[in-house]
Amino acid sequence: MPGPSPTHLVRELTVGARVVVRHRLPDGSATDALGDLVCADDTTLTVATRRGEVVVARADVLAAKAVPPPPARRAAPHAAIGVEDLERVMAEHWRPLERLDLGGWRLRASEGFTGRANSALAVGDPGVPLVRAVAVVEEFYAARGLRPQVAVAHEVDGPSGVADVLDARGWTVLTPTLVMTAATDDLPGARDASLPDGLHVETGPAPDDAWLAQYHYQGSPTVPAAGRRILVSADEQVFVRVVDGARTVAIARGSLSPGWAGVTAVETSPSHRRRGLGRRLLAEVADWARERGAASTYLQVQADNEAARALYAGQGFGVHHAYHYRVAP
Questions:
Q1: DSSP 8-state code for residue 83
Q2: Which of 56, 147, 148, 166 has the fewest CB atoms within 10 Å, measured from its CB?
Q3: What pTM was computed for the model?
Q4: SS3 label, residue 293
Q5: Which CA distances in Å does 203 have to 67, 251, 270?
Q6: How far apart are CA 64 and CA 47, in angstroms?
Q7: PROSITE patterns per the record (predicted)?
């Protein structure tokens, strides 16, 4: 059975993504354009490569796909990626309902469901002075009835330039968080993480009612419609739950983008903690990610959650960088 046509594959690519486009040359040979997809109209693609922009006619495209960001240092892929590139990767695993780009910044809004989907991701150059960029952020969220919020990523012990501007305007720090990464092949699998007797695992490509009932974002007893859309916003995702009898007692979500898997929404019922369920959830996502060729895996954990940090470190995750939210007064 034939696979997707190059035209179909091109339609799936997102402007701003890092891509490789194999295309036909006038002499009949073929070459690759590797870089950021900066424009895609009805007839051409424009790829910003290291040697400049390459314009490719859609009719000449032989194959096209998104690829992971380039390494920022010499190390394994999960450690070599730069802070800003990893932030962009993670953003594709939790896409907002609405997005407005301001230079390299992404202004995201999703009816208030989660900080990730309702904050300005301040990575790269906003294309305007920082003071003006912050003013645009304030205007964007005010127009939507949301409190202005900026996600500020930085090295664990390093400063961020935008933080100084926000400090001067009285923005406060919220939810300091660590990003941890691992080589997917190094993570334990399900066969290495047995469950107590009587418990079993169920997985699916979408969250069912039992999974959603166990997901308590910031203590909320229900997931709003916006949240349900965000949960299935990645290129692909899996929803894992551990079941005790007829009751779901632990959940996790795995997500996928080129080269990367993400782990989010890890929760275990208080009655079933310290029984190895968290390890099994991570293992299930790791097995799923390996089957799909994701070389690296990331997760996010609040900096003061020592128990979760210990669990993740024990499974092979190491700290990559940190971020926090700045909230307008």
A1: H
A2: 147
A3: 0.83
A4: coil
A5: 27, 10, 21
A6: 11
A7: GNAT
The arithmetic mean of pLDDT across residues 251-272, rounded, is 96
> At residue 253, what is the residue type?
R
Tell me how far apart the alpha carbons of residues 116 and 141 are, in angstroms, rounded to a whole number.
14
pLDDT tens readout for residues 140-168: 999 999 999 999 999 998 767 799 899 99
Residues 6+ apart with CB under 8 A from 278: 250, 266, 268, 308, 311
Longest dimension (CA), the chain: 68
In order of their start, the domains of the chain are: 6-66 (2.30.30.520), 77-175 (no CATH), 182-319 (3.40.630.30)
- Report the b/e string of 155-172 with b at 16+ CB within 10 A: eeeeebebbebbeeeebe
How many Cβ atoms from other residues are within 10 Å of residue 136's Cβ?
Answer: 17
pLDDT in tens, 302-318: 999 999 999 999 999 99
Mean pLDDT taken over the chain: 92
Structure tokens at 116: 């990730």
User: Are 133 and 139 within 8 A, CB to CB?
Assistant: no
Copy the structure tokens of residue 279. Answer: 């390890």
Going by their DSSP bridges, the two strands 120-121 and 149-154 should be labelled as parallel
Q: Is 17 helix (H, G, I), strand (E, B) or coil?
A: coil
